[in-house]
Amino acid sequence: MAVELDVFVGNTIIMSEEVYQLWLDGYTVNDAVKVRMEGGVLDEFDAKADVVLSDTMDQYRTFQMCERLLHSPTKLANQLLFQIPPHRQATLIERYYAFDDVFVREVLGKKLSKGTKKDLDDISAKTGVMLKSCRRQFDNFKRVFKVVEELKGPLVENIRQHFLLSDKLARDYAAIVFFANNRFETGKRKLQYLTFQDLAFCAGQLINNWTVGAVDNMVEDMDVDLDKEFLQELKELKVLITDKDLLDQHKSLVCTALRGKTKAFNEMEANFKNLSRGLVNIATKLTNTKDVRDFFIDLVEKFIEPCRSDHWTAADMKLYLTHYTNSAHILDTFKHQVVWDRYMGVIKSCIFKMYHD
Amino acid sequence: MPGKLKAKIVAGRHLPVMDRASDLTDAFVEVKFGNTTFKTDVYPKSLNPQWNSEWFKFEVDDEDLQDEPLQITVLDHDTYSANDAIGKVYIDIDPLLYSEAASVISGWFPIYDTIHGIRGEINVLVKVELFNDLNRFRQSSCGVKFFCTTSIPKGYRAAIVHGFVEELVVNEDPEYQWIDRIRTPRASNEARQRLIFLMSGELQRKIGLKVLEMGGNAVVGYLQCFDLEGESGLVVRAIGTACTLEKLSSGSGTHTHPNTAPASNACNSPSKDGKEPVFGEDLPSSSGPSTPFRALPTSSSSPPPFSPSKPCSRQSSSSDTDLSLTPKTGMGSGSMGKDAGPLKTLLRQQTQTALEQREFPFFTLTSFPSGFLLHVGGVVSARSVKLLDRIHNPDEPETRDAWWEEIRQEIKSHAKALGCHAVVGYSESTSICEEVCILSASGTAAILNPRYMREGCLDLGGSDQRFEDPSPSSCGFCHIPYDELNMPFPAQLTYCFHCRRQKVPDVLFTTIDLPSDAAIAGKGCFIQARLCRLKKKGQGEANATAISNQLPFMEYELHTQLMNKLKLRSMNALFGLSIQISVGENMLLGLASATGVYLTALPAPGGIQIAGKTPGDLNTEQHILNIQKRINDTIAKNKEFYEVNPPDLTEEVVGSPIPEPRLRSRLFRSHSESSDELSELDLSHGKKDAFVLEVDDTDAVEDIQSLLTDASPPKGFYSCNTETMPGIYNWTSALQMFTSVRVLRLSNANLSNQALNKVFTDLCENLLKSFYFKLRSMIPCCLSHLVFSVAVPEEDLIQVAVTAVAMTFDKDQTQDKPAEKPITKGCSEAEDQLQFSLELCTDSSSINSQSSSKNSAAKLNQNQLIVVRSAGVPESSHLSTRAASVDYGSFADRCSTWLELLRLKAHTIRRGSVKTSRRTQSLAHSVSSLEHSSPLTDGRSRSLRSSRSFGGSSVSVVKMTPLSFLPGTRIVKYVGIINMFFIRETTSLREEGGVSGFLHSFVAEVFAMVRAHVAALGGNAVVSYSMKDCVLMENPNKNQCQCLINVSGDAVIYIRETDQEVTGSTANIRLSCTSSADGAT
């Protein structure tokens, strides 16, 4: 007695968020049925396994048919095939484009290419995210990347408009696109402690302050590429470490301001030149694409790690960087205040975010 | 040149990529009507072309306008090779041809390809200019409105109900033409789709002509079906009820202004007599008054047909089962045209003169304005097995016509035998397997109020009826129309429990909806009888004979099952009964669906008693006791679940809600010696009686099994197959229409009948369970209008397709008083008007007939399922042995209850004010529900804002329901009938997700196309939606599958009951209904 065919179609789409999530997570129909039954569908309702199976199959088919539309979410609103209430549309899209932080952490900064796609089974094994789900997430990244690549205007806004995502999710995607475009290295061991949210925050800072879009908001790739002129100008900051007087002057200003305000004062004083050299060197090297990629690893190696080994607290860090930045303004021979601010503003907030265990 | 059709192609969107190299498409459009074709320019390299074409003008006859669809083909231009078709859109122009409906068709239509499904959308504008007075062109029937709805459409009143119209057209099926061997599947499918479009247009036009000839202007309850007869052709046939409809002024349409009723009542005055000569005279000669009863008078002397104790009569019935090869002589001889008693004759004289002039006094309507239906006799049905042969001359489909003619004659004579002059809730269907075809027709024999037959204003006339008729409308229809002393079959009669004046049967089976003013107790319940019978494979005549021999037995079995299940739920009446018998190569499937209800006018049903044939065996007795206990428990449980607590039961039958076994009279199955006891009045048996099921009988074991395996719906769920759920009145607005199809493959070839039955029963039960599960988020909820259709597409395959609607209701149903019903049921126009036009309209003729009926206390009412050609079928026997069951002891009691009833009635009528207050309450309720949903929608609209700015306006919501109304709303306009036929085929079945995936997307596509057409007509809902056909043919080995779906319905514009203005609030409606109509999770 084999059921040869079994369909159930409603005039308004029939879906359960639970089943949708199972589908998104890459469960097979049978596994999804198991999960649902264990989850107590049976208890709340007198349902046999075959009823749950039939329901799950129907929904899976519906989702599969919707998937094509979800690839360009704007179509979902004016397609005629399914009658989907607006709030359902929003849910469908938002959930489809949602991703697992553990997964995205693995591919962040990698080239969104076929090569990376081949590695997905390794990533799946490592993160515990099912391969099917990995593929969906990876394809989403790629799709968003491809669409916004050629668009003018602000990155986040473009993503939000084309994919009808919430602001939060659009920002996350902007970060992913930004990382992928600039190929930031994030996979190194030393960077493992950073979560996706840490890095997404940093990406947001970079996008808002260091890209072309920060000065001109009507060019292509404005939010994706770093502002070349700015990077050139950063070279001028070198004077802060190459000019001995300036360095000493800077140090004394900072130390005066810090004295007595922190327990780590001695370490700060001792390490000032090292740390300053580290930060300024990062700035001056950013014209090299290779060094741009190493931006985060450099930040960690040259600044965060030394501070951490000296047991600075987060408050110490804040205090130090604030004074370090502000003191530079008092240096009379230092002429590059604007560039310095643009640089340090981002560095400061990135380090604040990244300075944790 | 009476018409100019204008079409404009605006734009396309979401087109498929036709050029792989550029990932784009160079699309253009061909617009074709009749033999004229126009083309748009090619819009190069775009998936969202903006053609913005000129207006293409077609100058055509209105006959063509009715027959032909507008064909729009989207193609991809190719410089070097042939242009590739992307897909097509067929637009039915008919809705533009009558003034009240849509004036323009404008909107996005899915571009449909029979191989690829929906491929993008196209925006089209269509207009029609009609020049001449249409009525002078007799070949066309522009202006006749068609409604699928099987009641008088909301906002209209029926000035005259003319009666039955039918027509059929035949053609060769393109799929079976020689050319099909050399053309592509796509071309073949398109040829078929086009042909069926044409045929249904032609059919509608021809029916329209008949309506015009009768003097009507509309067809209500229009039912169109396709018979795919394979080699022998393609038949499109339709039946309907011709009416003269008048639009109610918008004021009187609203329930809130009942004062306008007297005004419209004026229409009823004799000045309207211009419309008088309705019957006979106007009819074409074939159905003229001279020939209506060709065969019947001769049969009037034939012996009473139901003589169950004589097995020999079975012979006569089988000889009666004619094949097309053996032309039938003496039509209707199998049934009885017994002359009614003189009293009866007198009583019905008036009506008969009106009705009997017609060839077929049939009505496809299932619900009527109160007062229209006087008495209901019972279900009448007729079936006939035919052998198909090739239709030689499509222009004269005489054979098919003759077949249906026979069946209808038979129905008519059955009705006559029940003392009824009309058949209501009438429908016809076929089941075809290879060359064998079963034609079926069924309906409910009834006596109608004669007033309506002449000049009856359906919605008004009932008023005086209420006062004149001795039987209150809440029970009047139950009173038997038959002469008590002259019953056509044995049955048990009692005095009506409501009025105590007239006789009622113990059970009542009908094919109509529960009359809105019927007095019931508790809630209704979906009842289904299922039966599967193996049959030997056969050929030709032998096969047909074998089938027709089986039919009566199947009907009997189904009937018994229904009866048992009804008893198990302690109910006493079935509404909406539909019995479907499907034929396959090696089996016959029978499925009877109905909605059970407890009519308080009828006696309380007895229980079911289990008896062993061989007493003494301890084991057996123990077993029997167990079963008996389970059955009693189930009955008790069901009573509680369906809240069946009839008021009079508790008042009068103190202390014995479930009868003691010894009080039960016996009912024997098939071989009963029933008739002896027929006239015996055994008072000692009290009013209760029970079925006795003897467990030694294997059939009985089966029955018991199937009785007990039927699970009642889970808490919070109710279900029914009628328009409204008896006992539930406070619907909320959320609804979810759905279609579900399941096909089961019988893996085990050598199944016994019994095992097969089990499989089939489980299939249906599991489907229901599955619905409950899927829709559980809508609790409390009712599945209404559950329509099951079964088929045997191939050997070993059973297909069940279901369409229904789930509707939520308000759990806190404080009181369900009859007076409140009309408000929520949306059919209150008539009610309101009734109450205010009481004194104004008195028609002497009606008084006449009514007073005579008052005098005839002996007037009876009878129900019985009459089976075709089954004069001797045991069927009729099972009601027989019961004794009359009225307790005569308490006459005084009865009088007092009757007085109470009268008082109650008066109270009801005085309730005007109460009603309005209730009304405001419901308004308040809907308002709050609106408010409820608004915060949500706000949130959503924010998230969607960007999409609107981006992809143009979003799609408007189109609700769909198989019912004729949408709860919480008011239908303000019918914009046209939807009647669509689609074929979908695939040669990559696996890639599309197997049969399920294929059908799932096809059904979704069909919904989408229906919605798009409705929206383009300006409508926002489809009512009376139904899926007539779903024919699936698969060949998994070849990776192929083909499916045909035929759907129909009425496109309407509705507004929320709370909104007095149509404008301004539509946006609200849309948003809030989306949020509420959201499906299950």
UniProtKB/TrEMBL annotation, chain A:
Q: Which InterPro entries match?
A: FIBP
Tell me which domain of life the UniProt entry assigns to the organism this sequence originates from: Eukaryota
What's the protein name? Answer: Fibroblast growth factor (acidic) intracellular binding protein a
Species source reads Oryzias latipes (Japanese rice fish)
- Higher taxonomy: Eukaryota, Metazoa, Chordata, Craniata, Vertebrata
